[in-house]
Amino acid sequence: MAYNEDSSASGHDEPWIQWFCGLKGHEMFCEVERSYIEDGFNLYGLRACVSNFSDCLDLILDRIGPDDSDDSHLTQSACTLYGLIHARYIITAHGLDAMYNKYAAKEFGTCPLVQCAGQPVLPVGLKDEMGADTVKIYCPKCQCVYHPPPVRSRSSSHHNNTGAAGVDGAASGVDGAAFGTTFPHLFLMTFSNLVPDRLPAASAYVPRVFGFRVHVSARQKANVGPASATSSTKPSDGPGAIPKRLPFTRRSGGSFEMAKEGGSSAVKGEDDTIAKEGAGTSQSNDATNDSTSKSIKELAPSSSQVRVGEDDEGSRKSKSGKRRAGTDGDASSKGNGIGGAEGNNNLSKRRRKTENGNT
Predict the structure, then answer these.
(1) Residue 92 gets which letter from DSSP?
(2) pLDDT for 79-128, tens place per residue?
(3) In whole angstroms, what is the distance from residue 25 CA to residue 161 CA?
């Protein structure tokens, strides 16, 4: 906790809590109620965090006078204990109300971002453990965390500080555990009317050079390595020199081939490769045509098979014709037989009539 020997409690007549909150750099602290500190339930678990817990508690509650606490180590332990009690108190109903008044008065400061236009901030700790980090300020508008502005000490000779960060009574030397990681967010949830609108995307700062926006690629670091440095050096023209590469390449057989220097040799090499590729292409086309013709021949029927099929079809037709003719003859013969029987019956009837008439 931010405390030094020159700001010790000896010689003051005011209560210890008021004296502690009135120290330079302790503007973010609020005065914890005496009844809250006297309740043992609220101090559960803090005895192991501070040495001489009972003496420190008596000092905070003014049970012992300032003349009896000249020991700087005891005073420093009392400051640490008060910070831990303060972190618990500010998340209660009475503590939130006390911090509300300080927030409305902008005693915690304002956001350093220009776009936030003086938005009040809240103290926050990045860790809940004592001695881990100093207090920071949280802006509810841009939702960013910043370092609090430094507070100069009363004299330039105050350099021996027993605080967590070793700053001369400045706000940046206050331990972040005295406010905790929960307070600012619980505060905004409790007082939702204090939540400001977030910054619009159009309010973001745009860097410009002579009125023109700076492109993103201009802020990227150039990757300059051994390979790029070697390629950028110009080779010599000696016998062991590296051959120059022409800017244009052509693809052949799935690989890149660089055109060598010397116009006639390069052109001749390209003609050879083109001729080889053409020959290979023609051979592949011939092979494809041969395979296609073979498949067509295999699928097409031969002339003998066609003739045999025609003969079979003719014989089938002749057999069907004969069968039809036989059925017709049978039907006619049956008809003739029936007609002859009827005629015989009629003749026999006529003869009987004539015989009966003669008699």
Answers:
(1) S
(2) 999 999 999 999 999 999 999 999 999 999 999 999 999 999 999 999 99
(3) 13
Q: Does residue 147 come out as left (phi exceeding 0), alpha (psi in the -120 to 50 range) or beta?
A: beta
Summarised one tens digit per residue, pLDDT across range 130-189 is 989 999 999 999 999 999 988 654 443 333 433 333 333 445 589 999 999 999 999 999
Residues facing 209 on adjacent strands: 212
Mark residue 169 as left, alpha or beta (left: phi above 0; alpha: psi -120 to 50; beta: remaining).
Answer: left
CB 162 within 8 A of CB 184: no
CA distance 311 to 225: 87
Query: How far is Cα of residue 149 from the mean position of the Cα atoms in its chain?
Result: 35
DSSP H helical segments within the chain, as ranges?
Answer: 16-21, 34-38, 53-60, 72-89, 93-104, 183-190, 226-232, 263-299, 303-358
The three-state secondary structure class of 260 is: coil
Residues in the chain: 359
181 in Cβ contact with 123 (< 8 Å): no
3-state secondary structure of 142: coil
Nearest to 13 by CA among 53, 66, 50, 59: 66
User: Which residue type does 274 have?
Assistant: I
With residue 207 as reference, give the H or E element that holds it.
none
Largest Cα separation within the chain, whole Å, is 186
Answer whether 42's CB lies under 8 Å from 88's CB. yes
CB atoms within 10 A of CB 311: 9
pLDDT tens digits, one per residue of 234-270: 545 555 555 555 554 455 454 444 444 444 444 455 5
